[in-house]
Design a protein that fits this description.
This protein is α+β, with helices and mostly antiparallel strands. It has a single domain, classed as Immunoglobulin-like. About 20% of the residues lie in helices and about 45% in strands. The termini are far apart.
Length: about 140
């Protein structure tokens, strides 16, 4: 009987850890500052256009540029995707005020089926001194 209770508690703890991990993967929280980056869908077909949104849910500014990159999961490792990462970006500073957001698109064209992630760096705090790398995950159907 005691072993069933322990197994039950272990299962509940495992679920709590998985849910917490999912929430942390979707959101990055530092003190009172929170930044969210996500795609409009979790799964796309080749040829679709993915919309990526960066949202400042915190109480201080978020600093960033227009640059980002896309990586594909291959053999358990994330590898740079030439076909989905643009060749160039404009050099500009974008400041997201609290509650502000920005959005961009990624043309998936003939993307291979698989798991992908968008990678973007942002800077937090009033002077942009704290750099944070954000990830937004999606999949292309085969």
């Amino acid at each position: 009987m005691a072993s069933r209770v322990i197994l039950g508690l272990a299962a509940v703890l495992a679920i709590v850890i998985l849910v917490a991990g999912f929430l942390l993967a979707a959101n990055f929280l530092v003190g009172q500052r929170q930044v969210l980056m996500k795609t409009d869908k979790e799964v796309y077909d080749p040829g679709e256009v993915a919309k990526v949104r960066l949202v400042n849910l915190g109480s201080t500014r978020v600093w960033t540029g227009s640059d980002f990159l896309v990586e594909r999961l291959e053999g358990g490792e994330w590898v740079f995707s030439d076909e989905l990462t643009p060749d160039y970006f404009t050099l500009e500073l974008r400041i997201l005020e609290p509650g502000g957001s920005m959005e961009w698109t990624i043309a998936l064209g003939e993307a291979e089926p698989g798991e992908y992630r968008v990678v973007k760096e942002v800077w937090l705090d009033s002077w942009g001194e704290e750099r944070v790398t954000l990830y937004a995950y999606f999949r292309v159907r085969g």
